Amino acid sequence: MNLWSLNFTISADIINPVEEHLDALELTYSSFESGKDFQVDIIFQEKPDEIDIESIMGFANKISSQQIKPTVQEIENKDWVKENQKNFPPIEVGSFYIYGSHIDLKTDKPFPILIDANTAFGTGQHETTKGCLIAMEDLSKNVTPSSILDMGCGTAILAIAAKMLFGCEVVGIDNDPESIKVSKENAKLNQVSINCAVGDGYKSLEGHFDVIISNILAGPLINMAQDLSMHLNDGGHTILAGLLETQASEVQKAHEEVGLALVNKKTLNEWTILVMKKA
Ligand SMILES: C[S@@+](CC[C@H](N)C(=O)[O-])C[C@H]1O[C@@H](n2cnc3c(N)ncnc32)[C@H](O)[C@@H]1O
């Protein structure tokens, strides 16, 4: 018997509440970034009826600034695990080689990182993650940090990369308990020791860091700027991502207001990565 799917695209600012709604409805779905938006695919055993569609789209449309148009389609029976893995070929970013467990590891890169597409964000496919990896490697040419924080660690891909690159103490924080579970598993798989914990931003976080990496979104980054500065050592660096090119000056300004200065700025496909330093 074939399965059915309900598919739609929504803007990044409403993906979290929509996912919470789908979780509450106990639906099987996947969501992935598609340019500036998110593509959501929900799987049904049978063709979804109008009530199913209304309970999902009614909620999404209520919080969306524009009308969302879903499509419903019958899906061919396939080996979905294999199909999904095709979307995750290995990626080379600078000295890093990011690969899933379906790949036989063969690389000359000094830092292979094993990350499977899972329930947490951060497989290395997205420009924001790639941009942070590049910025981190650039930074490693000039600085030798003793402590690094990855705020919004997702799969811990950046925390693991930081540990491999700098070999210092690395802390990963995420407000999603599932991400922290995945982060701990990924640290073990990659045989690195990082300290991962659930936390809402900097609330209840102790300690100061030489480098803070934060790939979240422009809004939360601006809201957290003051706390970030308080937890960054003098002379320390931050790598900020998750912001569109059009939001970069706002995010930069919020961090300048709390004592940081721009060191470097790179844009990959509309996504800007800022590197800033605390005086
Ligand atoms: C775009 S993902 C980045 C994942 C990974 N660091 C990467 O670069 O691929 C952002 C992560 O930040 C987390 N996040 C969002 N708001 C947060 C907050 N207030 N405190 C901690 N983590 C947060 C999300 O749960 C998500 O895992």
Cα Rg: 20 Å
Assign a percent range to the helix content: 25-40%
Approximate strand percentage? 25-35%
Major beta sheet, specifics? 7 strands, mixed
Give the SSE order as H and E letters: EHEEHEHEEEHEHEHEEHEHEE
Can you say what the CATH homologous superfamily of the largest domain is?
A: Vaccinia Virus protein VP39
Number of domains: 2
CATH topology name of the largest domain, in short, is Rossmann fold
Bound molecules: S-adenosylmethionine
Strand order of the largest sheet: 10-9-8-11-12-14-13
Number of β-strand runs: 14
CATH class of the largest domain: Alpha Beta
How many helices does DSSP assign? 8
N- and C-termini, Cα separation: 63 Å
Query: Structural class of the secondary structure composition?
Result: alpha/beta
CATH architecture of the largest domain: 3-Layer(aba) Sandwich
What is the typical, i.e. mean, pLDDT? 93
Backbone shape: globular
Q: Give the uncertain stretches in residue-range form.
A: none
